Amino acid sequence: xxxxxxxxxxxxxxxxxxxxxxxxxxxxxxxxxxxxxxxxxxxxxxxxxxxxxxxxxxxxxxxxxxxxxxxxxxxxxxxxxxxxxxxxxxxxxxxxxxxxxxxxxxxxxxxxxxxxxxxxxxxxxxxxxxxxxxxxxxxxxxxxxxxxxxxxxxxxxxxxxxxxxxxxxxxxxxxxxxxxxxxxxxxxxxxxxxxxxxxxxxxxxxxxxxxxxxxxxxxxxxxxxxxxxxxxxxxxxxxxxxxxxxxxxxxxxxxxxxxxxxxxxxxxxxxxxxxxxxxxxxxxxxxxxxxxxxxxxxxxxxxxxxxxxxxxxxxxxxxxxxxxxxxxxxxxxxxxxxxxxxx
Amino acid sequence: xxxxxxxxxxxxxxxxxxxxxxxxxxxxxxxxxxxxxxxxxxxxxxxxxxxxxxxxxxxxxxxxxxxxxxxxxxxxxxxxxxxxxxxxxxxxxxxxxxxxxxxxxxxxxxxxxxxxxxxxxxxxxxxxxxxxxxxxxxxxxxxxxxxxxxxxxxxxxxxxxxxxxxxxxxxxxxxxxxxxxxxxxxxxxxxxxxxxxxxxxxxxxxxxxxxxxxxxxxxxxxxxxxxxxxxxxxxxxxxxxxxxxxxxxxxxxxxxxxxxxxxxxxxxxxxxxxxxxxxxxxxxxxxxxxxxxxxxxxxx
Amino acid sequence: xxxxxxxxxxxxxxxxxxxxxxxxxxxxxxxxxxxxxxxxxxxxxxxxxxxxxxxxxxxxxxxxxxxxxxxxxxxxxxxxxxxxxxxxxxxxxxxxxxxxxxxxxxxxxxxxxxxxxxxxxxxxxxxxxxxxxxxxxxxxxxxxxxxxxxxxxxxxxxxxxxxxxxxxxxxxxxxxxxxxxxxxxxxxxxxxxxxxxxxxxxxxxxxxxxxxxxxxxxxxxxxxxxxxxxxxxxxxxxxxxxxxxxxxxxxxxxxxxxxxxxxxxxxxxxxxxxxxxxxxxxxxxxxxxxxxxxxxxxxxxxxxxxxxxxxxxxxxxxxxxxxxxxxxxxxxxxxxxxxxxxxxxxxxxxxxxxxxxxxxxxxxxxxxxxxxxxxxxxxxxxxxxxxxxxxx
Lengths: 343, 300, 392
Fold this sequence. Notes:
- The structure holds 3 protein chains of 3 kinds.
- Chain A has helices spanning 3-15, 19-34, 39-61, 70-85, 92-114, 119-139, 141-144, 169-190, 193-203, 205-211, 215-241, 251-264, 270-289, 294-308, 310-317, 319-329.
- Chain A is an all-alpha fold.
- Chain B is mainly alpha-helical.
- Chain B has a single domain, classed as ABC transporter involved in vitamin B12 uptake, BtuC (Orthogonal Bundle).
- In chain B, helix 1 packs antiparallel against helix 10 (250-269), helix 2 (50-68) crosses helix 8 and helix 10 (250-269) runs antiparallel to helix 11.
- The longest helix of chain B is centred in the first third of the chain and has 41 residues, at 3-43.
- The chains are: A mainly alpha, B mainly alpha, C alpha/beta.
- Chains in contact: A-B, A-C, B-C.
């Protein structure tokens, strides 16, 4: 067997749907029926998960560190908000796509700035872009509403059929559907030759270039794609909360996003989703116990996670599930192996 | 004097005042960010919690002056010492274990530390802004040829200027300085030559934290000291360090001056575009020089 | 690789199930109040003051009213309006609160308005100060203040006291713009001239360049509005720049000399004249008691945000007494309209038409009393209504 077909087989094996993934998505959907009173926070988690997914595309697959991803989130959010407020595009799904494209344009233009330089430079350039956009949004407060944000957004029913309700049910299903569709696309791309070339670039850009991968063009492409995802996440935010103000561009948003992704793990697309769940639940949990000082406990959890190490934590977390798998499937059953630190 | 001459004089004095304010702001940023630049350049460790040490120094000074009646100038050195002790302790206990980890892990860790410090200070000291009672010699302005020179800002320029000169002297003329420069340039070669790199770093880290603490105490008057200080100003420190490059202190020095003057000038002449100026300058410089104005690509 | 993700998520969901499970339904005899204020972030001092004041009131008056037990659920929205909205929704739907209170900033109050209308739940605004808030829902009642109340009064005072040229420095957000517009309207109508107008971005560390612009414009006085919490920084830099020596007085709504921070601002603040609705030095028995109790419990002076919270919870108690314990939205709002009482700040009432607060506005000067800086009142305007409502 030649090396090429070896890799081909491996790649194809990876690309097949693993049963655990199917269980994951079924669980996600069933949450709607398990927790019918908590739609709002679940929608919050879904939105964060989509946003984290977009960052995973550039961080996990292409190795671009970004502290300003909220820039695209913000463009998408304000885009959708303005579209709805001024009645330009009233159908939510269409508005979502249009707002996403607006973010994509910004992403494409700024991608040229991001391909240069080392980690720290990229960090600061991306941050600078996000802050610039925030300053712009504040400057043109007659359009954006400034610090007070866009007021009075009312959303038309999704696809003309499902009206957004106060309990957040429609919003949740809408957000989940969007997440799923975009996830499928991302998954497909991740397993394609394009996705594999991105991994090569992340691992060693020089070597990838030597092998003939057009590094810069790939980076621009994935950055633009990620900005579309982030824009859609932002548009989803505005559509499901009917709010959009300056904090959509904020540094805290980008920083929280990095945390979510690092908690969940980068490079396998589910990291953002898991991280979003864990982070939000931790925040809720601590916030309920101590509305004033929850940040302290979140900080402590983060420090502990880093000190203990993700690999070790995964091993501990998987101990019981592995036991069960072995009991049920016998010793030859697929046992989960903690992935080595992917960053 | 003719109207034109009067007008020119007025704008001259404005420009000088703006320049003066900008230089003061810039030097303050430099003292605050200098430790971060060295940490980053020396050990390649992204310490986003740097602002927390600045905040610690600021609060130490505030407590000493406001609640225990210490004179301001006596409390400043203690802010330095206090922060560097905290820095040394944390380095030994926590940071040491993370040198070999990825940048992302370091970011996560330091942000976690920031959250903890913010909430802890909020709990102990309350959420309101803290003002340090200044000696009367520092209040108000001096009149220098018609230009109003703020006394407090003048003091900042003097202290920070002296510090910078001292730092440059230590780096260039002392043995420790040359060890430090060697370790920044190439740690492996340096330890091969017998330089105890971990010790150099521990000391430098503590010193950098001390500087941050001093900067924090000085900035309480200008930037405002409250529990959210590390989060609010983290961005500015990072800007100084990336624009200036992290392989020397001249880089961050010039970068902070540039940013300080740019920010103040922008806010004066175009108030609505205030923050614009800093971010645009930063992006432009980083595109032109991805490693910062004076940076070199790391040797590792 | 994907196996791990599934198990992790399963573990996460099972672990989180307890956190997500809805709270058990409370007994009918409890009236729940959702108090949503910023407890973290830049406006944390506002949230803390309100929380303190509410706790103090409940300590003093007990937690039972008209046969019902009052339960306050405190939530932190970190000044993000989408948080406020989500928390309010959850409180209404899951915890079945009868009242939402707090609202640290205008966007938060506005975000919750449609919920208040839809769920018929009264929204008590204890901090936000923009005029249009009460117009956004028939269930909004305000116990804080509006910028119009203070700004128009100080404008009239300025005209009467020979201030001809004014430079304005206001933060660029809804209350700041309100303050600016109402001041300008009255000041220019009275014959004054605005020589310079500067709007500073809300998150502003350094006022120096803006102050320099003010100085160069050479006005008689500066009209200043910055949010609670930035006033101290501003006054310090005002002094540092020598504007007091240049004869430029500071006038404006009292936010800039907030009692919360006034003590530590330094002597440069002496003589500043402001118009506001509350001063810790207000010479009434009710206020002396309030200030003493607050100081005893929390170690610091109450500011106008604390009074907003104190009066807000008082309003709820009195409304419940009036309805005999009926806690549905319509009854409560009907009871609240027109209610009058003596607050630590002076006599206040709720305007039955606009559901906004009607209160006395005082002109005060910063003076030293017993060695500490206080806003000492020297003029009073009775029962000032908010003039900022949209003209029909």
